[in-house]
Amino acid sequence: MTLSNSKYECMDTDDLEQVQLERLQSTLNRAYKNVSFYRKHFDASRIDVSTVGAVAEIATFPFTTREDLGDNYPYGLFAVPLRDIVRISSSGGTTSNPLVVGYTKNDLRVRDTVTARFLAAGGVDETDVLQICLNPGLSNWGRALKEGAEDTGASVMPMSHMSTSKQIMAMQDYKTSVLLTTPSYAMHMLDVMETSGTDLKLLALKAILVVGESLPRETRDALESTLRINVTAGYGVSDVSGPGIAFECGEKNGLHVSEDHFLLEIIDPERGNPSPPGETGEVVLTTLSTKAFPLIRFRTGDLACTVPGACSCGRTLVRISEIRGHTGDVLTIRGVKVNPAQIRRIVEGMAKGYSPRFLVHLYQRSRQDMIALSLEVNDAIFSDEVKMLEATLKDLRNQLMKTLGLPVTIRLVEGRTIDEYAKPSGGVVDER
């Protein structure tokens, strides 16, 4: 068993709960004092944060949603002055406003500690060369993973926008021992290796750590048997802290949640009450160590269940299953969470008052998720002049890439093509 901090990973349950309680009390008091959003909601619920005496009392507090994050853009949820913020991380988010997360120096240390814990559980140490291959939409995760890997002492190749063939060449030439990517891109790389005739026996690869997507059993088996390596998964949420909130150990029977830094709940997504042990529900997280951006009962929208019993690895941290789906309309594409409403806002913004009909098509090519936009041709938004048309489409592609962090193909179609799918404008056709 590889541990980055055995004091907390193997702590007695009662001792761990005491750590959680002390950190929870501190978090709640800081949020109430410094964040008007939480003060207003706690007061409305008639909650006195100074009287919280047990971890279980978190269930009496109101939830925080992604809509709340968007409504308080950019700094409304910060609990420290800007002078104490050393890093501001921004991404497209899934609401009308971007997601903005602030970090103090201590917050970054905590994030690196949690990330290093995930990497160490996957076997990463100071002897490794670690290569990060992630979609541009996960650039913040790439930075967090790089810094966490540096904490383990490993030599790190940060994420770059090289082609897959160049990534494989670097893997061979630099003797990469650990690859950090999404499950789908790992399979895509394997396909390219086999097609190009790469001699897999000459690779120095010993492990692949995957994030951003669920890891299907057949994907794990294919990678491990073909490459003769070990594959483990991590779970993270950009809104909370990024990758590594939970991680697989060598037993590969659920993902251990870093409970000393995050308080976990699994709730019925419809009713909001706790789900019975072992029953799938929505993952809800409360930060325990974050100073700048505390989140109380944040609804992630991810569906999972707790894994019963003790893990034979020796860790006492609670385990959750792989992510089994999502609530609402949020989609996961190449590890990036996308709300179709984001695409609608961009398309309608381009149309300047007119609402063009369109469909979002999701499909796979070479094991990778692809997005295509079928957009109805209409004189209200498209000019007959080729140059004007090309400029409009280029602008639309650029706006989608900037917001989603994903490339989007745009197909101009006639109205009857939209009608064939019998879906409302903005609907999703998922053929993955």
Question: What features would you describe in this structure?
Answer:
The protein is α/β, with parallel strands linked by helices and 432 residues long. The protein folds into two domains: 1-327, Rossmann fold (3-Layer(aba) Sandwich); 339-430, GMP Synthetase, Chain A, domain 3 (2-Layer Sandwich). The chain is built from twelve helices and 20 strands. It has helices spanning 6-9, 13-34, 36-44, 66-71, 105-121, 139-152, 164-173, 183-196, 217-227, 340-351, 386-404, 415-419; strands at 87-91, 99-103, 129-132, 155-157, 178-181, 207-210, 230-237, 242-248, 255-257, 262-267, 281-287, 298-304, 306-307, 319-320, 331-333, 336-338, 358-365, 368-376, 408-413, 427-430. It has a nine-stranded mixed β-sheet. The model has no long low-confidence stretch (mean pLDDT 92).
CATH topology of the largest domain: Rossmann fold
Under CATH at level 1, the class of the largest domain stands as Alpha Beta
Number of helices: 12
* Superfamily (CATH H level) name of the largest domain: ANL, N-terminal domain
What Rg, in angstroms, do the CA atoms define? 23 Å
Beta-strand percentage?
15-25%
Neighbour order of strands in the largest sheet: 4-3-5-6-7-8-9-14-13
Reported for the largest beta sheet, the result is: 9 strands, mixed
Helix content: 25-40%
Distance between the termini: 36 Å
How many individual β-strands?
20
Mean of all residue-level pLDDT scores:
92
Number of self-contained structural domains:
2
Spell out the blueprint of helices and strands.
Elements: H1 6-9, H2 13-34, H3 36-44, H4 66-71, E1 87-91, E2 99-103, H5 105-121, E3 129-132, H6 139-152, E4 155-157, H7 164-173, E5 178-181, H8 183-196, E6 207-210, H9 217-227, E7 230-237, E8 242-248, E9 255-257, E10 262-267, E11 281-287, E12 298-304, E13 306-307, E14 319-320, E15 331-333, E16 336-338, H10 340-351, E17 358-365, E18 368-376, H11 386-404, E19 408-413, H12 415-419, E20 427-430
Parallel strand pairs: 3-4, 3-5, 5-6, 6-7, 17-20, 18-19
Antiparallel strand pairs: 1-2, 7-8, 8-9, 9-14, 10-11, 11-12, 13-14, 15-16, 17-18
